[in-house]
Amino acid sequence: MTRLFTRAAIVGLALTLGLAVVASPASASGTAQWRLVYQPRLRGLLTSVTTTGPRDAWAVGALYHGQALVDQPFVIHWNGRGWHVVSLPHAGGFVTQVVRASSPRNVWVFASFQRSAPFPPGVFRWDGSAWHSVPVPDPVGTGDPVVLSATDVWTAGGGNCVSTRGGLLNCKTLLWHWNGRTWRSFSVGTAVTGLAGTSSGDVWAVGLNAMTQLGKVQGNVTAYRWNGRRWILVRMPHPRIDFDPGIGMSSARDVWLGAGITLPHSGGEQVGFAMHWNGRRWQQLTAPASLGAFGPVLPDGHGGVWLGPMAHWTGRSWVGVTVSVPSGISWSFEDMAKVPGTSSYWGAGLLIASSGSIRPVMFVHGALPR
Q1: What per-residue confidence (pLDDT) applies to 30?
Q2: Is the pTM value of this prediction over 0.85?
Q3: Does residue 2 fall inside a structural domain?
Q4: Which residues, including other chains, have CB under 8 Å from residue 66's CB and lie 6 or more apart?
């Protein structure tokens, strides 16, 4: 899952530089590495990446002038030779947040308009030769969309929460579907924090129920599945976790939910936590605390999963991963994507200089896709 930035979160990141998965090079352990491959001379960050093959990848993010958010799109494209900035026409005032694609001729960019409150969404589609603006009502959100085709797109937006007798919150969320002509909404009984799907008849939504209202967010993991006709509640364990859960899937029999959890009787020690559905049963596992297993949930397609860029579960063991950056520089990953047909991955994020300035960057794990 991509942890998306609202306007407040983007501004807050520039001011605090501590809201994302940030570490110094010495904090990781392992032999495999992420390598820095693209660093334009710009201030800002990359928040989302998607890829359809070795010669086609897209990333989007936000730019800054000093600590002020620049209200214009920031889109880059990998063509197998290098990363290049792409112009998004007729999108002045929009800050790009998420990009997803099902093919080189179906790339969707989700953004928010920054020149008027309450910052309405904007959606733009690349058809392989030109960009088109997709009409979108205000309730449609830009959070963690699923793009299956030009006529099959899901995203979340809108909803409400009510307090139970015990003082906890139960929520409903609207899930929106684009059929190529119009958006239609469906309601599910959880506060949705992630979406994933592999076909028109197999889309999942994960979220939290019975949430605390004050202090640290806690809640019970809940999931719904779209079967092509309706959203159905998934029968599953409902562990109580401390962070918004993410979701990733490579097939109907390889679904991963991930988040952070506080170990009991540990004095507050938090570790990465994952749940796996193999089509028959659920398996739960936790990552060693030393790995810092927090971040996007990304299946590797071979029975394993990434819980952020630092921790890879191979299906048999946890592998720690390092990040190769210049000494004294901190970094943050905001999104990851597996390159189809290869064993490589793209990572989108930022570098943080000792002065506090931030710069957008792309990382690669494995061979450079070509």
Answers
A1: 46
A2: yes
A3: no
A4: 43
